[in-house]
Amino acid sequence: MSSSSTKLGDDFLRIPKLIADRENWMTYKDRLSWSVDARGLLGHLEGTEKKPVDPLMLSGRGASWIPTTPDEIRELSVYRTAMKEWCMGEAILTQQIAGTIPDSLFIQVKNLVTAGEIFMYLPNPFEKCSQVMSVKLLQKLQDQKCPEKGNIREHFDKM
């Protein structure tokens, strides 16, 4: 999340809740991605935005390392700022996902560590059913008929 990102209104970023019967999984996934991209957080969702590396973990530094030089102090400051931004991005994204999935699915993902892990898990119970859903949707589409004196435009919109 960069300082150049703009804060967008809640209505603009609102996505419909994922329906428990999986009917809207494909559109939910795309709308979530678009919403997250509008916030500049797509890297978190895709798992490409990596957690910053703690300077204490660099080779040769122990847990008792204390920065003493100006460069080390700057390095620690940059790390703390990057870590704060990364945590904020993760929190926003996990909350966005948590607020739009059914409780039964939330229980399954709540212990995953990152938003990317959660997003990678979501297709498991849904995309396995996508072929069945495609057949159901095709059948539903084929069953649609415009009434004899009905409005053809309304019929097309419904389809």
Molecular structure report:
Helix content is about 55%, strand content about 0%. The protein has nine helices and no strands. The radius of gyration is 22 Å and the shape is elongated. The chain starts with 9 loop residues before the first helix and ends with a helix. By secondary structure, the protein is mostly helical. The longest helix is centred in the middle third of the chain and has 29 residues. It has one domain.
Descriptors for this entry?
159 residues, 9 helices
Tell me the number of structural domains: 1
Write down the overall mean pLDDT: 82
- Helix fraction by DSSP (H/I, runs of at least 4): 55-70%
> How many strand units?
0
Topology:
Blueprint: H1 10-13, H2 25-38, H3 42-46, H4 70-98, H5 103-109, H6 115-121, H7 123-127, H8 130-142, H9 152-158
Quick recap of the structure?
The protein has 159 residues and is mainly α. It is built from 9 helices and no strands. It has one domain.
